[in-house]
Write a structure and sequence with these properties.
Blueprint: E1 20-22, E2 25-27, H1 30-38, E3 48-53, E4 61-66, H2 70-76, E5 83-87, E6 90-91, H3 95-107, E7 112-119, E8 122-129
Parallel strand pairs: 2-8
Antiparallel strand pairs: 1-2, 3-4, 4-5, 5-6, 5-7, 7-8
Length: 133
C-alpha cells in the first residue's frame, strides 16, 4: 500500500486498489477502474442523472445528479443536486455527452480530469486521477 503522506501532488496516479481522496484529488483505484472498463455503464446504473438547463436565464447547461447511491457519492465527492458542467473544459449537456467526452479523452491518453460542477449556486472544480491501463 502506498504511503499516503508521500502521495505526489503533480497529478500522478497513486497505485491503490481503492478509490480515495489524495492530496486534493480523487484517485480512482484499480478496482473501480477495472469495473468501469469492463462495464462502462456500471457507474450510471448507480446514479440517476438528467439534462439540466438553468432557470435563471444564464443559459447554463449540464447534467444534474439525482438519486446517487451514498457510497458512490462519498467516494467520488458528488452530492445529489449538483450539476456537472464540463470535463477538462469540454462542456457536457447530457449523460451521453459526459460519457462520450470522458471516453474520448481517456482513449487519447488523458488521465487527469477536472470536472466543473454547479454546487449550491457556485461553480466548483474537482480533480480525478485515473490510472494508466
Amino acid at each position: 500500500k502506498p504511503d499516503i503522506a508521500a502521495a505526489p501532488s503533480t497529478g500522478q496516479w497513486v497505485d491503490d486498489v481503492e478509490t480515495k481522496k489524495i492530496d486534493g484529488r480523487i484517485n480512482v483505484g484499480r478496482k473501480d477502474e477495472q469495473s468501469y472498463r469492463e462495464n462502462p455503464n456500471a457507474l450510471l446504473e448507480r446514479v440517476n442523472a438528467e439534462s439540466y438547463v438553468s432557470k435563471t436565464g444564464s443559459g447554463l447547461k449540464g447534467v444534474v445528479f439525482r438519486n446517487i447511491e451514498p457510497g458512490i457519492a462519498q467516494k467520488f465527492g458528488v452530492a445529489q443536486g449538483e450539476v456537472l458542467i464540463s470535463l477538462n473544459d469540454e462542456k457536457v449537456e447530457t449523460k451521453a455527452d459526459a460519457l462520450a467526452v470522458g471516453k474520448r479523452q481517456y482513449n487519447r491518453g488523458t488521465r487527469t480530469f477536472v470536472a466543473k460542477f454547479l454546487s449550491n449556486g457556485q461553480v466548483i472544480e474537482r480533480s480525478y486521477q485515473l490510472p494508466d491501463r
